[in-house]
Amino acid sequence: MRDKQIEDLKDYKYGFSTDIESFKAPKGLNEDVIRFISNIKKEPDWLLQWRLKAFERLKVLKEPNWQKPKYPKIDYQDLYYYSAPKSLKEKPKNLEDLDPKLLETYKKLGIPLQEQKRLNGIAVDAVFDSVSVATTFKDTLTEKGIIFCSISEAIQKHPDLVKKYLGSVIPITDHFFATLNSAVFTDGSFVYIPPNVKCPMELSTYFRINASDTGQFERTLIIADKGSYVSYLEGCTAPMRDENQLHAANVELIALDDAEIKYSTVQNWYPGDKDGKGGIYNFVTKRGLCKGKNSKISWTQVETGSAITWKYPSCILKGDNSIGEFYSIAITNNHQKADTGTKMIHLGKNTKSKIISKGISAGKSDMTYRGLVDISKNAFNSTNYTQCDSLLMGNKCGAHTVPYIKNKNSNSNIAHEATTSKISEDQLHYCQQRGLNQEEAVGLIVNGFCKEVLQQLPMEFAVEAQKLVGISLEGSVG
Amino acid sequence: MEQKLKTDFDKFISASNFSSQEIKFKKEALDNFLKNGFPSRKLENWKFLDINQIIKKNIGELTFYNDYSIKNEIDDNIFIKEIEHNKIVIVNGKVERLSFEYEESDKINLTTLDNINQNSNYNNSLLSLNNSFSKKIHNILVKKNYSFKKPLIIYQITNEKVSSTNINFQLNFDLEESSSIKIINFSDDNSEKNFINNLFNFNLGKNAILKNYKLDKKSNTNIKYDYSNIIQKENSVSETFIFSSGSDYLKNEVNCNLEGQYSSAFINGIHLLSKNKHHEIRTNTNHLYENTKSYQLIKSVIDDNSKSVYQGKIYVDSKAQKTDGYQLSKAVLLNEQAEFNAKPELEIYADDVKCSHGSASGSLDEDSIFYLMSRGLEQKTAKELLISGFLLDVVEKITDEEIKKLIRKIIGLN
């Protein structure tokens, strides 16, 4: 029995759950729960009204069902919408006040908050279940006027900023999961970079779902004011559980004139076991608005976890000369399913977008790239370049490409390419001849296949991602 | 509409002599159409061009009853004179003439089909509509080892006797082992505002060759839907060429099932659109067996406020290892109001495959225009030259030299 457990643990090293008493809202989705969440977070009335409006809208919305991976119906009344580590009911002032057990958890995850403070200069905001527990490096950031805190704190301390931008990219009238998030979101990160400030370090958030039957609904809002720059990283893990857990986050990015936001994700939620039991449903809405002239938003994602990944980080290129980029690696193994891609909506003149997507499917998994490039009538002189490549390992998995291309402007150019292939025998043979075993050889070739995207990641993440790529494909060859 | 459909259906049934079994089948098809109605943009395949809206806006009330007792005169002047050919002449959905004067009569078998149960594709309500209102289906069977000596031209004519009418038509081809046929489907529309719904079935036996060229040149205000279903056995080859230009609205759908190994399908198409026309090509190539091959090349030239759509799907079954699939769509937008939409799709379940697609759209290359103008050409001529070069690429894919010459002449690419 114990051996088996250890064996299982090998597969997903983040699959522990931490024994921390948590404080939960009653199960179910109703107005009272929303009031409860709003109340416990001491939110102003406008936000409560905003949530309730979203909830009203939710009642008439239907869950979408056009996606490729189908899943059993989710009972939204059987979920906890708020779960916080009990010891956090009163927020800690600094790291020393944190529950030692929590800190241990983060250590296991490889994000030693304490050490990080001194070491490599990445400011971390960690979100545990639904609540943000600690933010490091606050002082250095405050000096520059950068606001990096949990969104709950931002609501208290910077209500004007939150009120102005919250829901401006993903309105409460959006699709089902986004609206659900608007109604019940619990915490998340908030970043504001003042004009002409280049954020001196990478900002990072770590998400973890711990309690069972909990949905995680975090909300991230990043605003880059005129002429500023920020690079933001996000990582996620969850314990191994038999049941499926829902993760429906909303991420909104706003770039004003000449600003640039770089958003990187390494998503490694629990993917379920070998037979496809359990795992996270990762239904996330991510959208960036290039509001100002010459602004730029760049999404980079490495998707290796989750039972089902269903997300399309998008860019709305509203400002003239704005640029949108999307780099993605998605890997599915065993019974994992992914339906991911991007939307590039060109509204302003001279806007440019670039999409590089690499999909790898192995085992019995299924992977879809779905993307939209829409060049509107007034987007003169815009260009898009899309490349999506898929790699298949074995004949029990699937790889699909579904691009939607709309060109309504005769001065604009769109180019799209897609290929699907397998690892060639010649490449494998060559590597093995040089002394690599089969798995190492596959790892090497796959890393080469993904290189274009991996290069976009910040150093520290790139190393982790490269390892993840290797781990995710273990046992998929032969 | 529902009441109209029912009364027109009863009128149609009592005017024809179907067996009770056929009537039962037709009724089922009608019920299915009643249930689903005309497809709208809610359906993925109709996302870009909503035929339901277009019919409502351009035709309004449709008549489903088509009086087949009317005698139609055929004007021999419309026949193509450049090449000797066999003819099928269809006027307003009724077969008026079948002549295979250049072929050996014992090598072809002409029948009408009783078994209309095939093709009851309930996902496509337009096929249901076709099944419920089409007359007896002619079947052309080409016997083993026989190759047509001359091409067969199918003239699809509409005249002023029909208007605001729904015309449903079906034709069936069976190509036995090692047989071959060349078909030109030539539309000649002299009617206004009808909805024409065509369904062609092709069954290709081992080693059979089908060459099918579809031409829609003459400007008209009809709304058309044309579905070709091609089933291919081992080592068979199908070549489809679509020239889509004249009708106000035209959607060509080609479905190819590659069921036998070494079978291959080639689909090439041109959209040449101006004056508020909406055209779509949708190809569906299903690789269902090992070592099959498919190739699609679609090019669009879009002017004024026209809209061109290409939806192409390559499906590869997990059995279909060593598939070779390639798809390319290109569009030139000549006008601010023009629009091009594409959805090139890959759905792949086998690993040892080579599949790729590409899509590009934009304006004519300024550098090329500049180059030609610096050689003394006027801007207009330079643009025309570039456009014909762009389209000629597709016409050059036609494998039959004689027909290629004819089509170049008809389209006006010299």
List the helices and strands and how they pair.
The complex is a heterodimer of chains A (478) and B (414).
Chain A: H1 2-11, E1 22-24, H2 31-40, H3 45-60, E2 83-85, H4 100-109, H5 113-118, E3 122-128, E4 131-135, H6 138-144, E5 147-150, H7 151-157, H8 159-165, H9 176-184, E6 189-193, E7 202-208, E8 219-224, E9 229-237, E10 244-247, E11 250-255, E12 260-267, E13 279-290, E14 296-303, E15 308-311, E16 314-317, E17 323-332, E18 337-340, E19 343-346, E20 352-361, E21 366-375, E22 383-392, E23 398-407, E24 413-422, H10 425-433, H11 438-454, H12 459-472
Parallel strand pairs in A: 3-7, 6-8, 7-9, 8-11, 9-12, 10-13, 11-13, 12-14, 13-15, 13-16, 14-17, 15-18, 16-19, 17-20, 18-21, 19-21, 20-22, 21-23, 22-24
Antiparallel strand pairs in A: 1-2, 3-4, 5-6
Chain B: H1 2-15, H2 20-36, H3 51-58, E1 86-91, E2 94-99, E3 108-113, H4 125-133, E4 137-142, E5 152-158, E6 166-175, E7 180-189, E8 195-204, E9 209-216, E10 220-232, E11 237-244, E12 247-258, E13 264-273, E14 278-287, E15 293-302, E16 307-316, E17 324-333, E18 339-348, E19 354-362, H5 366-374, H6 379-395, H7 401-411
Parallel strand pairs in B: 1-5, 4-6, 5-7, 6-8, 7-9, 8-10, 9-11, 10-12, 11-13, 12-14, 13-15, 14-16, 15-17, 16-18, 17-19
Antiparallel strand pairs in B: 1-2, 3-4
Helix pairs in contact in B: 2-4, 5-6
